[in-house]
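SEVERITY: medium
COMPONENT: batch folding queue
REPORTER: lab tech (J.R.)

DESCRIPTION
The queue accepted two submissions in a row. Attaching both inputs and their returned structure tokens so the on-call engineer can compare them side by side.

ATTACHMENT 1
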Amino acid sequence: MANIEQMIRRQRVLADFGEFALRSQDLDEVLTEACRLIGDALATDLAKVVEIEEDRQSLFVRSGVGWPSGVVGETHLPMGDHTSESYAIKQGMPVITPDIITERRFAFPDLMKNAGVRGAVNVPIFLPGGKAYGLLQVDSREPWNPDTLDTEFLRTYATILGPVIDRLHQVHALRLATDRNVTLLDELQHRIKNNIAAITSLVRLRRHKAATEDARYELGVVGERIEALRLVHEHVYAAKNAGRLPLRPYVKQLLEGLVALHEEAAVRLSVQMEDMEVGSDTAIPLGLILNEFTTNSMKYAFEGESKQALILVEAEQRDGRLRVRISDNGKGLPAATKEARPGSGTGMALIARLSRQIGAKPDWSSEQGTALCLEFERRK
């Protein structure tokens, strides 16, 4: 009969195991700790958890303490009709073998005999829903006939193990699914990148073969916009969290790369904004808008200007809304004339369409250069 001190120690073991199982995400680690604690609580020599394999005809020694090397994580045991393991699972209750030498009901594997096991208890472990997972086996090198309190303690311990194992199975399955999704996303982004590159090459080839200057100009504009789309996607999906990304480094890297491509314009870029994150569904159209504005500024805003060319990007958030302003200190928006270059309005039309995607209305001004202001609801 367990005394009061033993009962208190066993209650402490249950609490310690519960806390450990909540902290750990590793099934083998949890099962090994379960074996260690049960051995300490009952002062037994050996403990192991055996797992029913997929064929439902054999058991795998998943974890354990006190066993010689080559047993835990390597040994497979049969689930025959004359094994105590099969009988315990069939009965759904702990099965006690006081001494395997004199036991006539069951056959025991050589690993138990070689380890000097005499007394043994098999306690079935069931997952939520009633499916048998395996068994908790506690063994002693002395004949052992645990009393009712010992047996109930083991049954309680196995009952706790079932939901813990089920939770860790779900964690493992979720990790596998996440890894597969990451792999699929990487493959998808690689294909998108290759497809955009192929389209860009086709546009450039067509541009070289175009018969008129106007056609070459329009195809050049299309090619630059496709390249901008590639750069935006590259920045968005290079982020650790493809769903959201920090706005400031994203805008800075995107526009710095664009300015570097047009180094002949000698433009200084200034990005002034708070630390904030935006979703990819906002980042992509917003990046294309800023790219379009910057490209047009470098091409047209500073012709004939002697002062230092500047493009300034500002952003702030307030009351759940995001306000983004991009401006230059060039010569301002040109007046609409019949002699305007073909396609000169397509940039503003593209910005208007992209602005609608993020729920903003473009607000243009042309006092000291050109400025575009966008204000829209910040999406969660």
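ATTACHMENT 2
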Amino acid sequence: MSRVAPILVLVLASCSEPTESTSQAYAPSESSGEVTRGDSAPSSSGSATTSADTSATTGASRGSDSSGDAQTDESTDDADSSSEGTTGAPLPEFDDIPWQTGDDIGYGVAYKDLVDPSAHHAFVGYAGYPFPLDASQSWVRELWLARLRELGVRHVWAVQGPTTVGYENLEVGNSFIAAKLTSVLEADGKVIVAAHSSGSYVAHELLAQLEGGLDDAGVTADKLVYFNLDGGTAGLYDAAVQRLHRAYFVSVYDGATGTAAPNRGAMQYLDSMWHANGGYLELEGNGSGCNDGAPWCLHMVVINALPHDPSDSSVIDYYDFVDRPVVSAYIDMVADDAGLMP
């Protein structure tokens, strides 16, 4: 089957007295692994990434080479971002260029330069807790093939999910992403950041680092388009949001069953704070195959249009997109407004 859930947009008016989300965190029975080392640069003082104030997803970890010291550098030569491709040879396919990992890329991070001189944008995809790096790589690959390529995305990062629901260990190498972004982003380029579930806490650390001093030259100022995919609120603060080009807060609601994804309230709360900077986007969950009263299945509809488990979340939704389209509708909704169209 190849059904795609219909999509609608709801942009809510700002609330006069918003309250913090109180969604209960969903803790899995299995962790993605013990943290052995962290980022070389701490986040900005404005980033409170140690509070798990909203829900996160769960799933069994896959790929032992996706976390900890098992990560190795798959490509020792960092592709030159200024490659002109003037030989007339066809551009390489996504899978022809190996993911780069290792100490110079950042812990929990994989990177590719797709060497298309006509493409100027970048994309950073943050997986939810506790999904491993290869799950994030699979999702980012599928999203690039389905939509990001035609939008002109050249530089792509995939980031593993945090090792705790609230990202208390601050283990991901975001400072390496920040440094690379400031060196490769072109004047007419944008950076699309999409963060699922508790991966939003990791993304908020990057936004805080860029605002807090890791981009003193302002290379990324007014260039980032942020999509919080049914994630959390902690660590996102006004100065970081005002520095973005746009900020969108995405969730899912099944109008047929009256069931909402677990962090819908958190996304609406963020809309009440920063409606003018982008706003709330809602995906229609009817047609996703999720059961009545299954919010954690709807939690995956921001990744996979037809989640595998109709009653819960599962890491397989990051890997298997056969007859289950990757979801890019939240980008399509606002591509013009966000300045992402080529």
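NOTES FROM REPORTER
Residues 133-151 form the longest helix (19 residues).
No errors were logged for either attachment.
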